[in-house]
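USER:
Try writing one entry.

ASSISTANT:
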Amino acid sequence: MKKRSFYYGLAALLLTIVCSIGLTSCVVEDSDFWPFSPPPGWGSNYFYDNRLEGSWELSQVNSSGVYDSEVNYMEFYGGGRGRYYYYSHGYPESEKMGYFCQRSGSTTTNYQINIQYENGEASTMAYWFTDNERTLWLQWRLSNGQVMTYLYSRVPYVP
């Protein structure tokens, strides 16, 4: 009888360990945090817009829908940290992302965001929300003068 209760106790312990490992995989990892800073010239004039927090899916580029292979996702964790998900040669990829928000003098919106990607690239864009903060618009000008407008929709999670 003692042997049987020992095995039940051992099985319960193993089950607890397996479940706790499974649950911790859903938490934001410390590896998603890395040192970064706002762009030159921003000084301390920046903030983290909590309206951005959550998951966003790209749904339009310059008023046109996107193909499944062009869809990307941004996940804002808060405090200037997040993750960018995209497809590369048909395979899903992701990288760390940092962001800083600032008031702007844009004629489109009162806000701009600087997003820094783990690969070293960075972009500063005007941003605004519509549809009761369920859609996020990002807009910037390319070096050739072309205006790019991306529309992201809020999603419950990144697939």
